[in-house]
Amino acid sequence: MQRKTLLVSAALAAALLATGCGGEGAGGGVQGGGTQEPADTRIGVSLTSQDEERWLTDGKAIQQGLEELGYQVDLQYANNDIPTQQQQVDQMITSGADLLILAPLDGTALAPQIQAAVGADVPIISYDRLIRNSADVDLYVTFDNYKVGSEQATALLTGLGVLDEQGQRTSEKGPFNVELFGGSLDDNNATFVYGGAMEVLQPFIDDGTIVIASKQTELSQIATKDWSQQEAQARMDNLITSTYTGSRKVDAVLTPNDAVARGVITSLRNAGYGPTLSSEGKPMPVTTGQDAEIASVKLIEDQVQYATVFKNTKLLAAQTVDSAVKLLNGEEPEVNDSESYDNGAMVVPSFLMPIEVVKEKNIDEVLVESGYYTAEQVKAGQL
Fold first, then answer.
1. Helix-strand-coil percent breakdown of the chain, rounded to 5?
2. What would be one Gene Ontology cellular-component term for the protein (predicted)?
3. Pairing of strands 72-77, 124-127
4. How many CB atoms lie within 10 A of CB 201?
């Protein structure tokens, strides 16, 4: 499978930390070149929130990777508050950061901080979320978020039986009642995930196999602020009350990440669905996800959530560390995409990490055998 090959390639990319090898990449870097001594080098890392398990994993992996190489690391979480992130990044620059790794809450809100960093000759890595409307981003390190959306939609169709496990159309015609949820509008990734999903789903909507009973299909209608579990639960509650009365039932919900999926699942359970995908009466609708958070992996193992998209943030962090070292040393970091990510001011040189769809049948293969989780953690549903 192509995804398997990509995962191997990602592991090799992570090994660059040890070998120091690299490919051609972005043209940024410390002005004038030269080697930065790690002990004298300070790196600021600004991530969005401690509310989501994945950001804690990201932060720990980045910090550990840089500190093992001897760098000073200032890791801050903005707790989903834009002014807090702006203040934190201001402080990083004032304190003498030599490089910034930024996951912006809002793609445009850090403009003053970006300008200050450029004035101080500080390279900038946009981490997982794209910094927008700036021509001063040296590198974007992320996952293929468009593919995340297409894989979520494909998983949903497979769960409904419309596609088989090889992605081929079956004789199943539906119609199936499906509702759509999107990510946070201030996160550029939400647009890519939505676009990938709708490219896959639209033909099935057009031919009537899928029916969006609420008629809410635009990202502006289905967005979930801050990718919030609570916001998702509240919207699903409203959809059930307004649209799914009488004998009409929900067959599937496109949920863009695991937090949103858990909010939707809680709402559905409260409305009498489940408890599992194979329940009598009103079975739990097919739901998707993203991030392979341990609580959702447990739900998948228990046949409650159907699938999630695994993004190995440890490999993402390793690639980011390698890129940071190269930028600090005046070298070009590796890129594998120079076309897809136009931030409004430039096409940002990017490195895209591979993804993997996780269902009940491959939890052990993808998450346990890789060492990302232990079997005990999966069984308990907690780290």
1. 45, 15, 40
2. outer membrane-bounded periplasmic space
3. unpaired
4. 24
**Range of the structural domain that residue 299 is part of:** 145-310
Q: How far apart are CA 45 and CA 76, in angstroms?
A: 6
- Cβ pair 289, 265 in contact under 8 A: no
- The answer, yes or no, to whether the previous bond of 83 is cis (omega within 30 of 0) is no
Exposed / middle / buried, residue 234 (Cβ in 10 Å: 0-12, 13-18, 19+): middle
157 and 288 co-located in one domain: yes
Query: Is the domain of 127 the same as that of 255?
Result: no
Co-location of 43 and 89 in the same domain: yes
Task: Give which of 211, 349, 362 is closest to 301, Cα–Cα.
Answer: 362
The CA–CA distances, whole Å, from 261 to 254, 290, 323 equal 8, 9, 33
Peptide bond into 175 cis (omega under 30): yes
Q: What's this model's pTM, rounded to 2 decimal places? A: 0.85
Domain contains 92: yes
CA distance linking residue 336 with residue 332, whole number of Å:
12
Whether 74 maps to a domain, the answer reads: yes
User: Which is it for strands 124-127 and 176-180: parallel, antiparallel or unpaired?
Assistant: unpaired
H-helix or E-strand containing 90? helix 82-94
Whether residue 290 sits in one domain with residue 222:
yes
What would the pLDDT profile of 68-116 be if each residue is shown by its tens digit?
999 999 999 999 999 999 999 999 999 999 999 999 999 999 999 999 9
- Position 226 scores a pLDDT of 92
- Number of structural domains, the chain? 2
Q: Do residues 136 and 114 make contact, with C-beta atoms less than 8 angstroms apart? A: yes
Single-letter residue type at 370: S
Are 208 and 300 in the same domain?
Answer: yes
Tell me the C-alpha to C-alpha distance, in Å, between residue 357 and each of 170, 185, 194, 318, 353. 20, 24, 17, 21, 14
* Largest interatomic CA distance in the chain: 70
**Calpha distance 215→204 (Å, rounded):** 14
Shared-domain flag, residues 129 and 185: no
User: What CATH number has the domain bearing residue 284?
Assistant: 3.40.50.2300
